[in-house]
Design goal:
Two copies of one chain form a homodimer.
Chain A (H helix, E strand, L loop, with lengths): L1 H20 L3 E3 L6 E4 H18 L5 E4 L3 E3 H6 L2 H4 L6 E4 L4 H12 L9 E7 L7 H4 L10 E10 L12 E11 L1 H20 L6 E4 L6 H14 L2 E6 L8 E8 L3 H5 L11 E8 H12 L8 H7 L2
Chain lengths: 309, 309
């Protein structure tokens, strides 16, 4: 196990260096936090246009949430119970001038200077669809449900040498809110459609049941339940390692978890079920660069034509 | 003064309600943190394409930084000295299962649950150009200097009812690194060009010397120096208040502040000077919506033609 980790870490570091060396990623000095080159971002944008075309027939509402959500909303999801180690809590300085002098003094002495910061009203967004549920709270859905097109920067505190495991990255999502049948149909439709549309770009994706890294002992039970319930699937592809595949997309049915917490109802008075497909924009770009090489001008003509690049 | 603040706050709340009511902004429950509708985001994207065309002749390098930068970099800027009250420090949970049980218990009891979180290696980005300087550290610039096209989400902890005063928003920037003359020329060029290109869209902008809200008593001295040195200019326009104008763009020369700290040199061995123009993407969109109305289909044909919408 240790050896295998070491081999993997070597693979990760080697591929990270290749991407940094080619200027596709720009180091921030922190593992998993990178600037993206214009070429990299151009692929992200091209993929987004492609996904927009693929979802057009659903005439989704479009909302773009920022990287922050309300602390109160965060606490109404179960993230603090299930993934506390991945959270990002935003703190700031709210003291007076004397407090400020002491703060700067601590910083200058190389001491721990953050102790007296105060938590703000916001947290970093853990998943692109979380900010949507409070915005839909206490409403009754139309008969046909709602389909919403989202994109947001999300945060996961998991520093890693794997260039595909970024601490901050963008998820593009199609979320549905509706009946149990509508939610399950959305997940199944997009799981199949996601596999097709990523496959059409030449990516070797395959669906697997998700295996999320729930925290602690209780988390191991949750992971087993997640596997058993088979509610969330991932589409995995090779990026830095061809041995350990990386999830580049996932399609997930939340049952009435959010509908119940945020009091979202179907027309017949039931709590709404929700489901989403998420596309990891940076990971999909990395998978394309891995599969077709670092120069999009040399990519297969079908891929270039679908991406309109 | 108090009355004037109250009147202003009424103006702000009224315009915020109008934007929320029209669905252009989506409430997160926290002042200054909003989802943006597809229509709003479409204007942002159109303006970005316009700015890209306006900067094309400079053949800038393009880098897109995420909303986070390294804590070490943050401490090497003087943000903690000058704007500590605006900072965003990212904290997470790094304990064991017992710690986690106590954390969740505190949350369930409605107690302060963040006390035992630990600071991570990252901070929220205070200004879009900050992540660039460490990436250029310990280099010597080419004769012609460097011009870099940036866009990033930035954070300012200043909750406000003013819809233009967001806590998280995007800055699009052109930054130059070069000699003192190159930096000053960049600032002056873009101050004039920025006024022209915003004016061409029908916005009533005018340049004013910047008046940044430096913290505390020391900050008042810095504000006076900033005014005296006249290094930073803002382009202001009416948004929620026609009385108190809002900066929608700013053009700033940093002298060798960053060049010295990050050891960036010109070919003749001097510390590099830097300068940037920043476009506040959400504020420019709000200014356009204020000036021309909430429906881009009815905007003046010249504005629509320049924005290609």
């Amino acid at each position: 196990m240790c050896l295998s980790h070491a081999v993997l870490d070597d693979d990760y570091r080697q591929y990270q260096q290749a991407l940094l060396g080619a200027g596709l990623l720009v180091s921030s000095g922190v593992p998993g936090v990178y600037g993206l080159s214009g070429l990299f971002e151009g692929i992200v944008e091209a993929f987004e246009r492609y996904v927009t075309r693929m979802g057009q027939h659903l005439t989704p509402e479009v909302i773009r949430f920022p990287p922050l959500l309300s602390r109160e909303t965060y606490l109404r999801t179960d993230h603090i119970e299930t993934f506390p180690d991945l959270m990002g809590s935003v703190h700031s300085f709210v003291g007076n001038e004397g407090d400020h002098l002491r703060l700067v003094q601590k910083k200058e002495n190389g001491e721990a200077w953050t102790e007296n910061l105060e938590p703000t009203d916001v947290m970093l967004v853990p998943a692109a669809c979380y900010p949507l549920y409070p915005a839909a709270a206490n409403t009754t859905l139309p008969e046909e449900g709602r389909v919403v097109d989202l994109r947001a920067f999300v945060f996961r505190h998991e520093p890693s040498p794997d260039p595909a495991r970024m601490q901050t990255f963008r998820q593009r999502e199609y979320v549905t809110l509706g009946t149990a049948e509508q939610a399950l149909a959305h997940r199944d439709y997009w799981l199949k459609r996601g596999e097709e549309l990523l496959g059409a770009l030449g990516l070797d994706v395959k669906p697997v049941i998700a295996n999320d890294p729930f925290f602690g002992r209780g988390g191991r039970v949750m992971a087993a339940t997640q596997k058993e319930q088979a509610l969330k699937y991932e589409l995995v592809a090779p990026i830095a390692s061809t041995e350990k595949l990386t999830a580049i997309s996932s399609s997930n049915c939340h049952l009435d978890h959010f509908g119940r917490e945020f009091n979202i109802k179907t027309p017949d008075g039931q709590f709404a079920h929700t489901a989403c497909i998420g596309f990891g924009l940076e990971r999909i770009t990395l998978a394309l660069l891995k599969k077709h090489g670092f120069d999009p001008a040399t990519w297969p003509s079908e891929t270039r034509s679908l991406l309109e690049i």
